[in-house]
Structures are given as C-alpha cells and as structure tokens.
Amino acid sequence: MANIVNLDRVSKGYAAGQLLDEVSLGLEDNDRVGVVGLNGAGKSTLLKLLTKAIEPDSGRATHRRDLRVVALPQTLDLPPGATVRDVVLGTAWLPEGFAAEHEWAGDAGVRTVLAGLGLPNLGLDAPVESMSGGERRRVALAALLIRESDLLILDEPTNHLDIAGINWLAEHLLRRRGALVVVTHDRWFLDAVATTTWEVGEGTVRAYEGGYAAWTLARAERARVEAAVEAKRQNLLRKEIAWLRRGPPARTSKPQFRIDAANALIADVPPVRDRVSLQRLATTRLGKQVYELDDVSVNLGSKSLLDDVTWNIGPGERIGLVGANGAGKSTLLRVLTGALAPDSGQVRKGQTVRPAFLSQELRELPLHLRVLEAVEEVARRVMLGDRELSAAQLAEVFGFSGARLWTPVADLSGGEKRRLQLLRLLAAEPNVLLMDEPTNDLDIDTLTALEDLLDTWPGTVIVASHDRYLVERVCDTVVAMYGDGKVRDLPGGIDEYLATLETPGAERAAKAAPQPRPDKTAEAGPTMSAGELRAAKKELARLERLMNKLEQREADLHEQLATHATDYEKVAALDADLRAAQAERSATEEAWLELAERVPEA
Predict the structure, then answer these.
(1) Mind listing the UniProt keywords for this protein, alphabetically (predicted)?
(2) How far apart are CA 274 and CA 458, in angstroms?
(3) What 3 state SS string does 520-565 have?
(4) Looking at the structure, do residues 33 and 142 belong to the same domain, yes or no?
C-alpha cells in the first residue's frame, strides 16, 4: 500500500460557518472510503479539498506526484453543445493528462459500462444539453468509469440509477483497481463498496473500519461509552442495530466488530415492528378495504404503462415497489392517489382511506413562512401511532430544532425542503402513505428517523424506491414492475428481482411466480451421513470453544496494552499478538459459519 493523498490540519469555512477544523487524514492507493454525514456538514467540501478543486483556509492538501484523479461532482458543468462522444470519449470534460478514447462499438468495456448504467442505445452524436439531468449524470459517470485512474471520487453516484444499476455499479467498483471515495446516502451501496467510513460533522472527520453496518455499531458503542449522547438518539441507534443483526445474513458476514458487544447492545431490544399489533390497528382505522384495482390499464401513446392490472391492497400492508426508471411505478402511485384516471378498468378506494402522496416533484412549500409555521399550518398536534407529538416535537424528529425552527422556508437547502415536505405530509395524519423515491436528498440520520416513525405507524405504506436498504428495512413485501405493464409479487424480495432481470422476458413471469421456500433441514439432510453429522457437530463445538478462548485472549491483550501504554516496544509486541489473535478468531468464525450452514438445526 502507498499513500496518495494527505490532508494536514486542513480547515475550511464559509460565511454560514466553519465546516472543517484542522482535519488530518490520508488515502492509500487501494482504500475504498464511504463518506457520510448530515446535509450541509461538509461532505462535498471535503471531496473538493481531496481533488484540490478548492484551497483550504489553512493547512495543506498534498498529492502523490503524477496522481490521476477524476471526480463526479453533485453539480455538472458539461461543455455547451457537447455530444455524448465529446463527454464519454473526448477530453473536454476531464482533467489534463487523460487521453481521448477512440473506440466505441468495438470496445466491449465501454459497451458494458453504458449498458450497466442504463444507456445501452445512446448514440455518439446525441447532444447532452437536451438530455434529462439523470441521463447527463450517467453519461458523465460513464466517462469516468471507462478510464483508468488512481483515485475515483464520486458525489452521490447512485442518484438517478435504479436498483439494477446500483447493483451493477457496486460490482464494477469492487472489481476496479485504485482508490475510491464516495459520498452516498444509499446504505446498501455503502455497505457493498466501502471498507472504511468517514463521518463528517462538527468540524471534524471520524474514520471507522467497514461500511454502514460497522459505522452504525461504532456510533452506538461511542454513545454508550461517552454517556453524554441524548437517550433518544441512543434508542434510534440500538433499534438500527437490531435491524442490522436480525436482517439478511449478508449484512453480518465477515464481521469487523465484536460479536459480544453487539449482542449486549441489542439484548433487550424488541423486534423492529410489532406486525400483529400494527395490523390490528390498521384494520381498525382503515377497515378491510384500502385499494382494489380491477383490470386497470394506462397507456402513454403506444406504450402500455399498466396492462390489465388487478391488485388488492389491504390495511397495514407495507409494500416496496421496485423497477427500472420508466417501468410505470410513478404512474401506478398516481392512479392510486386519484391524480391519474386509468384508460380502462376500475380503482376502488376504501371509504376511510386518507392518502398522502410524496412525489418526486414536491408540492410548492409556503416559502413566506418559517419552518415551525409551515408545520403548524397543517397541524399543531399530531398522533403518530401511539405517540402524540406537538408540531415542534415532530419537526425535531426530522432535524429541525432550536433556531432552525424559525428559519424561513425559502432559506432551506434542497434536502431540508424535502424533509419539511415529508414532515407536512405526516402532520396531516394520513392512514395510507404513498412515497415516490422518498430518499432523494435525505441524509442517513433523517432516513433513520423516518424509519423509526414508520415502525409504529399503523397504516398502509407503499414505497417506490431504488434504495434497497430502505425497502428491506421498511417493507414486508416487494412487488416489481418490469416495463411490460404488469405488477408481480416477489416472495424472494430484491434478490429475486435482480435474479429475474437476468431472465428473458418470456421466462420472467414463471420465474417471478411464488415458489415454495426450501426446507433447510431437508436440504441439508441428504448431504451428510449420521457419522458425518456427529463429526460436524463435534467440530462446531470445538470451534465455539476456540472462539471463546480467542475472545478472552483479545480481552487480555487489550488490558495489557492499557497497562503498558507508555512502553513503546512492549506495545508494539502486544499489538502484533493482538492482530494475530484477531486474524485467528476471524478465520475461526468463518469456518464456524461455513460449517453451520451445512449442519441442520437440532
């Protein structure tokens, strides 16, 4: 490993306040760093300092000689009159030192990148200026991905990508050589690509090993040790940990945190949602009927967005709606709200249904009011589940507290306006919540607060989103739209959706149909004889004893390190022993996990 970028006691501020205060950090040539933090905390400023796009107020930013750096900023400044050829293959948009690419159709790597980003049929001479913001952003991202660079810096690269595109991008970045720094609010993507997480806030940058799961656990551990963090924030983090530990096994494979510490934190945490109670409350509030669609069709010219869709939605259902851009998700939500009448078929809505719709194009906010006034304009007191909150308390849940409550709406950032819009929708106390890409412009803490509210919200939720983490966290069922006008249930969730994308259209319906879940015991049984099973269980017990011994060994070494903190030579030797013990325990855990998957439960 070699160091390629250093920030030495770097500070940067603007008229609104100090963003970074004497920050020191470095990047090595194979680092993959995810950058997180509240909106306005300084994440984009940090990226600009890393690329030397801006100079620090004090301190120094240094690059290794001949370092090749490319970056995708939040705001694109593409050359006027540029074509796809100019941006992707030319050099007009790239820093000095990058050569033009002369191959197009003959270059499989270029074609693969464009197809992965959802741009397979883009022509060389297509003008970029007339494209949508999402298309322009994907064209710019393609220009960066087809070239070799030492450091790739991406600011919200998953914006305007669907779930399949995000999955492809994660796999591409994992295969790519060189360092990566990415700002993202997509928690699944962060876990998939990052081996280190930088948290930007309060003028500093804190580094954590691992992706979103490890960062969440480290934050909870820090809160527990310092004991100065407010109880409300602690409870949110502990709930998030419970979700992470009880979620899909992939979240906790190759754990980078102490298993016992995580278990201690969640020992008394109940399930994320009490589904039975919520279902009962939802039925009381909504009755038995929410929406019934009978043979509903919607056409846009010759394209069928909905084709004879029959779908029943009941009280308390939590549905994730996934599909590529243009597949018809927004159209379906608009039909449910009544904003769009179908060309044929019938939509029946329950008499007690009070829907709230968060669209991608947000309704105009009252710019002449202040934040608290904008919330109180809708309601002064709100019942959310079993909790009664004042307008100010609800605003605090979404990050508006203190002086920020009296900020004019016109002065809010884009992310803050998005938060306020969602806040106003919830203040109206709907019993059906329809959300179209709700994670746009929301930071991770706000998303966690939203998920916490929805955990106790006794209504029906339908979320159309490319945010895999949000869908898996909030929804109990997943339905998919493939662009053929149909709506299909996916018992296997997003994993099943991604698998069906690899299947030809004629076979997709059969593959997307519900399948019986495998019997794990029956599956494992034939693979082992009785003697092999006894030997495997004996080996599991041995590995468990070894893990306990290694865990105790690590604890002893930590105590010795604290005792001999001033003895450099002793600390170096102890640190080497600790690393060896940690490596052995990690290998033992991997062996245990691999064997445990093959042994049926007793």
Answers:
(1) ATP-binding, Coiled coil, Nucleotide-binding
(2) 10
(3) HHHHHHHHCCHHHHHHHHHHHHHHHHHHHHHHHHHHHHHHHHHHCC
(4) yes
pLDDT of residue 258: 46
Residue 213 tokens read as 């799961």
583 found inside a domain: yes
Q: Which two tokens stand for residue 527?
A: 């693979």
Shared domain for 80 and 207, answered yes or no, is yes
pLDDT digits (tens, 9 = 90+) for 78-110: 888 888 878 887 766 666 556 555 554 446 777
DSSP codes of every residue in 57-114: SEEEEEE-TT--EEEE-SS--PPTT-BHIIIIISSTTSPTTPPPP--STT-HHHHHHH
DSSP characters over 124-174: TT-BSTTS-HHHHHHHHHHHHHTS--SEEEEESTTTT--HHHHHHHHHHHH
467: nearest Cα among 99, 217, 191 = 191
**Alpha-carbon distance 335 to 413, whole Å?**
31
Sequence letter at residue 564: H
Q: What is the pLDDT of residue 586?
A: 76
148 & 47 share domain: yes
Q: Both tokens of residue 174?
A: 């994992």
Contact in structure between 465 and 471 (CB atoms under 8 Å): yes
Point out the domain boundary residue: 450, 482, 512.
512
- Give CA separation, 302 vs 305, 306, 346, 374, in Å: 10, 12, 21, 42
- Residue where a domain stops, chosen among 512, 539, 566: 512
Low-confidence stretches of the chain (pLDDT < 50) are 104-106, 229, 249-258, 278, 281, 284, 506, 510-526, 602
Q: Which two tokens stand for residue 572?
A: 């170096």
Tokens coding 340? 């769009």
The per-residue pLDDT for 73 is 87
The answer as to whether 271 is a domain residue is no
Q: Which residues contact 147 (CB under 8 A, 6 or more apart)?
A: 70, 94, 98, 101
Rounded-to-integer distance, Cα 119 and Cα 101, Å:
18
Please indicate, yes or no, whether residues 467 and 580 belong to a single structural domain of this protein: no
pLDDT (0 to 100) of residue 252: 46
Instruction: List, in sequence order, the alpha helices (H) in 194-230.
Output: 212-226
Statement to judge: residues 142 and 255 lie in one domain:
no
Which pair of tokens denotes residue 306?
């909905």
The burial class, CB within 10 Å (0-12 / 13-18 / 19+), for 372 is middle
501 domain residue, yes or no: yes
